[in-house]
């Protein structure tokens, strides 16, 4: 099949290379010239495991092209996928500016019967609005059929998640268009669920809001565990053995971040307000998360009797999760800002996200080239992102370089056995008894 994709971010690019991998002719379009130049040479603008191998293989096989020209990209395409960003507005609602622009860019080049798929996360009703924009701007002979096809990939495992998804949601009011999109995905052998456009739009928001709520719930449980002397790791394991609860997404920590959960929960909350539907649990999910993101700061402050000024704090991890260089809404941002405000000197280390972090956090903190450089002469270590490198660090040797070994583990990811065998360390996890 000939497929065009607008937007070569995490979603558009992962979709593009995956569809090429299963044999389709794919053209990816982006307005960002620098990105397209890199992609044409097989260089991935984002850090995503496996991406460059997929790019090189499919470009070489002639199945994958990149262009900044909507005209060239869309020509002959049976299916056009919109995967541009839908960030949040200041009031928390979804900002559809890029999507509206993309629809206008696209409309003039649509051919007789085109299926337009919206993969971006969009509020209920957006597919209808985009269809109106397309119809108002395309040639009168063109018939546009909309398909809502939300994406569920996770950054850091985007290709695996696309190729081995749990489900593919196909929402359309045109049976023929839905069947065609189902056929496009059929080599993946992933279960497809066909539904209405509005239900598909809702499935995405409800899924993300549920996952975010699960995270906030276990974080609230963790805080309670700390207060009453229980261990949240055991509590979560015991809960998760119940099949009705399930053992995923029950890792206590310093809250969710990234480009999706924070904005999607806010956008859904905004919809509930507009529709005057009571959905208070969303407000609590957001409130708990805001507080959880600074929990390590509060713990550090308490440990140093309310004064961290002049202390060197090593912050291990900057990206919002491991295996990505994405800094959008990363808890590290708030932690760095709060510690700096309190007069601490933050030395941050991340294996891949430093360049992006400098743009977001700026020069108010220092950036180390190695983990060792960050922890040298530090008064305390904060584990913020659970990269393998952090999990595998040699805790016993920290005593040789740090002023005193005090560790705050925001991801409960350090090796317990190693910790127990170390002398002269203090270890403060989330929701578990400290090791002192
Ligand atoms: P992104 O910001 O990484 O990429 C969007 C791309 O669209 C950019 O490269 C931008 O230059 C391009 N673009 C903007 N206007 C354009 C136009 N008119 N024509 C062509 N290209 C244009 O975004 P992303 O993270 O890939 O997310 C895209 C959508 O998918 C969002 O709605 C997001 O909520 C959703 N989503 C994201 C993830 C994720 O993990 N990142 C997962 C599921 C769903």
Automatic annotation (TrEMBL):
* InterPro entries, A to Z: 6-PGluconate_DH-like_C_sf (IPR008927), NAD(P)-bd_dom_sf (IPR036291), UDP-Glc/GDP-Man (IPR017476), UDP-Glc/GDP-Man_DH_C (IPR014027), UDP-Glc/GDP-Man_DH_C_sf (IPR036220), UDP-Glc/GDP-Man_DH_dimer (IPR014026), UDP-Glc/GDP-Man_DH_N (IPR001732), UDPglc_DH_bac (IPR028357)
Record has Lyase as a keyword:
no
Enzyme Commission code: 1.1.1.22
UDP-glucose/GDP-mannose dehydrogenase C-terminal domain location: 314-416
UniProt keyword annotations, A-Z: NAD, Oxidoreductase
Q: Which reaction does it catalyse?
A: UDP-alpha-D-glucose + 2 NAD(+) + H2O = UDP-alpha-D-glucuronate + 2 NADH + 3 H(+)
Lineage top rank: taxon: Bacteria
Question: Which Pfam families does the entry link to?
Answer: UDPG_MGDP_dh, UDPG_MGDP_dh_C, UDPG_MGDP_dh_N
Please give the SMART domains that the UniProt record associates with this protein: UDPG_MGDP_dh_C
- SUPFAM superfamilies assigned to the protein according to its UniProt record, in alphabetical order: 6-phosphogluconate dehydrogenase C-terminal domain-like, NAD(P)-binding Rossmann-fold domains, UDP-glucose/GDP-mannose dehydrogenase C-terminal domain
Q: List the pathway annotation.
A: Nucleotide-sugar biosynthesis; UDP-alpha-D-glucuronate biosynthesis; UDP-alpha-D-glucuronate from UDP-alpha-D-glucose: step 1/1
Q: Give the enzyme class.
A: oxidoreductase
NCBIfam families annotated for this entry?
NDP-sugDHase (TIGR03026)
Provide the family line. Belongs to the UDP-glucose/GDP-mannose dehydrogenase family.
Name it: UDP-glucose 6-dehydrogenase
Organism, scientific name: Mesobacillus maritimus
């Amino acid at each position: 099949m000939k497929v065009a994709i607008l937007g070569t971010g995490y979603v558009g690019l992962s979709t593009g290379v995956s569809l090429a991998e299963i044999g389709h002719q794919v053209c990816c379009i982006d307005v960002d010239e620098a990105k397209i130049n890199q992609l044409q040479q097989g260089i991935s603008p984002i850090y995503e495991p496996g991406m460059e191998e997929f790019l090189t293989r499919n470009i070489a096989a002639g199945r994958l092209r990149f262009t900044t020209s909507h005209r060239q990209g869309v020509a002959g395409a049976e299916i056009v996928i919109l995967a541009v960003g839908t960030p949040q507005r200041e009031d928390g609602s979804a900002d559809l500016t890029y999507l509206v622009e993309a629809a206008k860019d696209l409309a003039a080049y649509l051919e007789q019967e085109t299926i337009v798929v919206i993969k971006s996360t969009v509020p209920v009703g957006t597919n209808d609005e985009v269809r109106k924009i397309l119809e108002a701007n395309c040639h009168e002979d063109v018939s546009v059929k909309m398909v809502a096809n939300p994406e569920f990939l996770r950054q850091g495992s985007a290709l695996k998640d696309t190729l081995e998804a749990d489900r593919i949601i196909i929402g359309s009011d045109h049976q023929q268009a839905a069947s065609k999109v189902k056929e496009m995905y059929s080599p993946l052998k992933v279960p497809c669920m066909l539904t209405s456009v509005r239900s598909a739009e809702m499935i995405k928001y409800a899924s993300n809001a549920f996952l975010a709520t699960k995270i906030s719930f276990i974080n609230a449980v963790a805080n309670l565990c700390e207060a009453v002397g229980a261990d949240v790791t055991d509590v979560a394991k015991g809960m998760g053995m119940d099949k009705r609860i399930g053992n995923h997404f029950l890792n206590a920590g310093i809250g969710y971040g990234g480009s999706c959960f924070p904005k999607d929960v806010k956008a859904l909350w905004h919809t509930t307000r507009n529709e005057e539907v009571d959905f208070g649990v969303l407000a609590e999910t957001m409130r708990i998360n805001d507080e959880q993101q600074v929990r390590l700061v509060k713990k550090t402050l308490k440990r140093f009797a309310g004064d961290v000024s002049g202390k060197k704090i090593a912050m291990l991890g900057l990206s919002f999760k491991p295996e990505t260089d994405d800094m959008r809404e990363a808890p590290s941002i708030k932690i760095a800002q709060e510690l700096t405000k309190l007069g601490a000197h933050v030395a941050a280390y991340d294996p891949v996200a430093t360049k992006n972090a400098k743009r977001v956090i700026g020069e108010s903190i220092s950036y180390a080239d190695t983990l060792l450089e960050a922890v040298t002469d530090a008064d305390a270590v904060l584990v913020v992102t659970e990269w393998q490198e952090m999990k595998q660090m040699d805790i016993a040797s920290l005593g040789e370089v740090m002023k005193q070994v005090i560790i705050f583990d925001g991801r409960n990811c350090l090796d317990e056995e190693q910790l127990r065998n170390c002398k002269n360390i203090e270890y403060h996890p989330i929701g578990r008894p400290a090791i002192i």
